[in-house]
Amino acid sequence: MEEHVQLTPLERYVTRIGEKFGESAIENAYINELAKHVPTLVIQKEQWKEVARFLKEDESLHFEYLSNLHGIDYEDRMEMYYHFYSYKHRQNLAVKIVLPRENPSVCSVAEIWGGADWSERETYDLLGIHFAGHPNLTRIMLPDDWVGYPLRKDYVEYDEEV
Amino acid sequence: MLRNQPPTESVISPAPEIRTEEMLLNVGPQHPSTHGVFRLVVKIEGETIKEAVPVMGYLHRGTEKIAENLTYTQIIPYMDRLDYLAAMTNNYVLCHAVETMMGLAIPERADYLRIIAMELNRIASHLVWWGTYLLDIGAMSPFLYAFRDRESILDLLNELCGARMTFNYMRIGGVKWDAPPGWIEKVANFVQYMKKELPNYHKLVSGNEIFIHRLAGIGQYDADTALHYSLSGVMLRCTGIKWDLRRDESYSLYDRFEFEIPTAVEGDCLARYWLRLAEIEQSLRILEQAVQQFPADGEIMGKVPRVIRPPAGETYVRIESPRGEIGVYIASQGKDKPWRLKLRRPSFMNLQILPHLLVGANMANMVAILGSIDIVLGEVDA
Amino acid sequence: MLGFTKGLGFTLKKLPEKKVTHKYPDEPFPMPSRFRGIQHFSPEKCIVCNQCVRICPTDCIQLTGKPHPDPERKGKIIDTYDINFEICILCDLCTEVCPTEAIVMTNNFELAVYSRDELYKDLTWLDGNRTNIREEN
C-alpha cells in the first residue's frame, strides 16, 4: 500500500481496475471539474458487469452506495451515467458507459446495487436503453402500451388518430 | 342454537382441507394514506402481506423532457412542483448545479437568505410529515397542531417570496427578493416560539404507550440494506449511518453553523419518527445562528451574465433535502437550455425499499410503513 | 399509562385557547404585499417587446401588437393580450422581465369559475383587475 500513497483517487481507481481487468477496460479517465472535481471513468461496455461488481466488493474501492444512474441521448450515441459513493473511504466516483444509438443495451447492475432497480426501469421507460439481466424490465412511469421513448431527442408523440 | 353448544374440535382448529385464500388488494391511487396518487397492489393471505407491487406514474409530467426546452431560469418554477412540501431545497439544487458549472460566486447575504428559507422549509416539511403520519396511524389532533405551526412558516415564506408553497424564490446567482423589513426578527421570534412548542409535541405523542407499541420494531432494516437500496436522509440515518450532506459534503454556508446529525440504530418506524423531530430541533439551531450572523446589508444577486449559458460538459450535484439526497445532473452543450436534465429524487429512491419491507408484514402495518418513508408523489413521479 | 394521560392533559389544556383558524371565505384573507396573485396589465405602458411571452415557462401568454396610430411615432402598441389561467402558474417571471412594468402582480387570488373558457382572460379583463396591485415588482 505504501507505494500508492502518492496516487490521487483517480489514479488509484485506474490502477486497481487496470490490474484486474487490463488497460482496455477503461476507455477514458479524467477529473470532471464541472461536477465538483469528481473522478470520472469511462468503462468499456462489455466488461461493465464485472467492473461494477469489483467496484462494490473490492476493499480499496468499496463503492457501496449508488447515488444515481441515468442515460443521456447524444443523437449519435447513448451514454449511461452512474454516480457512486463510498461511505467507507468517503469518495465519490462517476462512471460513464458509451452505448450505440441503435438498440442500446447494457448489463443491469440491479443485483449489485438494489437501488438501481427502479432507476434502470425509468431509463428503459423514457430512453429505451435495454438492461440485460434486469429482473423486471417494464415501464414504470408511462403506461405499458406507450409507443416510443420520450426522452430521446427524435421522439415524436404517437397519435392514434393520425 | 349453535352458540349454546360447546365448540367442537373442528371449529377450534380448521380442518386440514380448509385453506386460506390469497387475495389481491388494490390500495390507491386515490387513497388518503398514500399521500398522493400512488397505487399499491398487495397480495395478502389472511392478514399477512405476501407481495407488494408499487404502481406509479399517475403524476408523471415529464419534467425532465419539458426542461430540455426551457432556459435555466424557466426551469426553477418546475422544480417547485416536484417536492412541493420543500420547494426551497428544489430551487436550491438546480441553482447550485448551474452555479457549480459556471463557477459563480454567490453574495453572502443571498446565501444566508437561502439557508434561512431552506431550513424554514425543512421544518415545515417535517411538520407536515409529523401531522399526516399520525393521522395515518389514527391520531387526529397532532395534525391540527402541526398545521398550525406550519402555517406560521408558510406565512413567513409568503411574506418573503410571495407564494405559500411554489416559491420560485431562488435565481441563478442569488435570490429574487431581499428580506422585507422586520422579517429576520419575525424568523427569530418564530424560532423561539417553535423551541417552546416542540416539547409539547413530545408530550402529546412521543410518550404515548399505544403509539410506541404501534411503531417499535415495525418496518425494520439494517444499515447494509439501507445502502443497498440507495436510501438517503432519515431513511439512512435511522440505521446508524451518520451522514448528512450539509455537513459531509458541505455546500452553501453550512460549514459556518454548529449542528448535530441525529442518528438512531433501530432502523424502525419509531426511530424515523424520533429522527424527524430531532431534525426540526437542529434546523432551529441552524436558523438561530443564521439569524444572528445575518449580514446587515449586501447584494442579493451575484454578477451573472444576462443569458445563462453553462459551459459544455456535465455536472452532478446533490444536497440534503428533508426527504434525503436530492441531486441534479445537467448535461450542457454550452446553450442556454440544458441538453439533458436528470433529477435524482429522494422519494423515488427511498420508495424502492417498500416492497421489501412489506413482505411478511401485517396488513395493518402497511400504512405505518409507507408513511414512515415520507414520500411526496410529485417527486416520485416527476 | 403515564404518557397517554399526559397527551390527553395537553389536549384539554388547549381547549380554552383562542382559535387559530380564519373565517375564509366569509372574511377575506389578507395576503402580504409581495403575494403573487392574478396579473394586472396596463396597455398604455406596454411596448410590445414580447419578453413576457418568451420568459413564460408554460407558454400561457399570447399577445399581438399593431403599429402606432400616430404615424410620427415609431414602435408598436398592444392590440390583444391574453393569459390562459388554465396553465398560468403565477410564477412571477413575466412581471420580473417586463421593462415598463406594464404587467404587474396583484394580491387577488380567487380564480374559481364554472367554465374553463372563462379562464382565458383578455386585455380588458386584465386591465380591469386593478385592485391590490403589488408595489414592488
Description:
- The complex is a heterotrimer of chains A (162), B (382) and C (137).
- Chain A is an alpha/beta fold.
- Chain A is built from three helices and seven strands.
- A five-stranded mixed β-sheet of chain A has the order 1-2-5-4-3.
- The termini of chain A are far apart.
- With 382 residues, chain B is of the alpha+beta class.
- Chain B has a single domain (66-381), classed as Cytochrome-c3 Hydrogenase, chain B.
- In chain B, 47% of the residues lie in helices and 14% in strands.
- Chain B is built from 16 helices and ten strands.
- Chain B has helices spanning 9-12, 63-67, 72-80, 87-102, 108-136, 141-161, 183-206, 209-215, 223-228, 234-237, 245-248, 269-293, 346-351, 354-358, 366-373, 377-381, and strands at 22-27, 30-31, 36-37, 39-45, 48-55, 170-171, 174-175, 313-321, 324-332, 340-344.
- The radius of gyration of chain B is 23 Å and the shape is globular.
- Chain C is an alpha+beta fold.
- Chain C has a domain at 35-128: 2-Layer Sandwich (Alpha-Beta Plaits).
- Chain C has helices spanning 2-14, 51-55, 93-97, 123-128, and strands at 39-41, 61-67, 76-84, 103-105, 120-121.
- A three-stranded antiparallel β-sheet of chain C has the order 2-3-5.
- In chain C, a hairpin with an 8-residue loop joins strand 2 (61-67) and strand 3.
- Chain C is elongated and about 85 Å long.
- In chain C, 23% of the residues are buried.
- At the A-B interface, strand 3 and helix 3 of A face strand 8, strand 9, strand 10 and helix 13 of B.
